[in-house]
Amino acid sequence: MSAEILSYFSTIQLSNFELFLAFLGAFLLGVGKAGIKGIGVVIVIIMAIVFGGKPSTGVLIPMMVLADIFAVIYYHRHTQWKYLVKLLPTMVIGVLLGVWFGNDISDAVFKQLMAVLILGIVILMIFMDRKKSDVVPQNRFFSNSIGLLAGFTSMIGNLAGSFSNIYFLAMRLPKNEFIGTAAWLFFVINVFKLPFHFFIWKTVSKESLLINVLLIPGIILGFFAGVKLVKLINNEAYRKFILIVTAVGALVILFK
Length: 256
Prior knowledge:
By secondary structure, this protein is mostly helical. The protein is about 80% helix and about 0% strand.
């Protein structure tokens, strides 16, 4: 199998630097799924540089499912199921809308709109923190809107993390509950997305799966490195870190 993988890489003529970038993307994916949230934008950009925009989504999705499995196993006991029940229905609808419109929507307009929305909600979250307000967390329209946007952006560009981060911060979940709930949420959504990548968009292929096999060590190393990093961050520092990185990620999307 390893010979076949290497043979495939030689046919698509990836440079050593591109191979390094792909491994770095896999490593960061593991780190992110272990709980260092907000780096999804960086991962998506790296993979898009190496494989191209839409093809990179097919490379990423099986890797994300594998990393989700690690996260679900490790953080399962911290999952807050009531928040999954609130988000999943509208996320599923968002994914279906993403499948439908994915081939037609302007990539530039999509990225700019998403970046503005993320920045707007981050500003709202900062305002909430200062006012110690809990009005938004009790608002059903807020959870439904976040779920719809997260599902749509998840299908289009694997960028739902920014919206889910904001939602779980709004719910004021402690660090481990945040990570455990997000782990199950994205495991379910990413498994749901797989058939669309296989049979409709056709972005997952034998060749892309061979690439995934080669990058598995990067995911594993990243996950265990991420677990160690998470243990070093307390709840309050974790909350601030997620807000800052999410805002930076939105700016990267906006000006990329």
